Amino acid sequence: MRYQISGKQIDVGDALSTHVKTELGATVEKYSQRPTDATVIFSRNAHEFICDAVVHLSTGLTAQAKGAATDIYAAFEQCRERMDKQLRRYKRRLKDHYKDRAQPVEFEQAGMYVLAAGEDDEWETQDNGLQPMIIAEMETRVPTLSVGEAVMQMELAGSPLLVFRNEKHGGVNVVHRREDGNVGWIDPRNLG
Fold it and tell me: What domains are there in the chain, each with its CATH number?
């Protein structure tokens, strides 16, 4: 597994890097036989150290966790425990996902835009009505998944929603975490 361990205005020494590689590697290998790479970033927020970890699995899924503590090693341990909990919770599904899928998850490139806040004076008036001001453009990847895999990916990433291409019909779908704790699924193709 390839590791990218870095710090934002923090010097990550050899001892911490070795500890991260050993512990995170052991945690991920328990549940996924072939992780491809991991990115671990340490940062500070006032008196706390924050550890963000993202692990890409060979199946195309991504697991993400975050930890915070007053000690940098404790922040990593909290992050690692959360990653372990997520992977343990989805262990059976991860194995089933890998077994049923002959090829890794396919991704499509898509444009992603950051719009200015909805203040009327920040929006441009054009012939076809009010248009929000684009303040950033970037690319993102949209995976092709089943609905169950999309829900699992959303949970593993700790994200409130996931946009994906439905592998059954190729249409763009969204799964999202609802305020009542349930998961919502938006599929425009199922409209009457």
Answer: 2-99 (3.30.160.100), 105-190 (3.30.505.50)
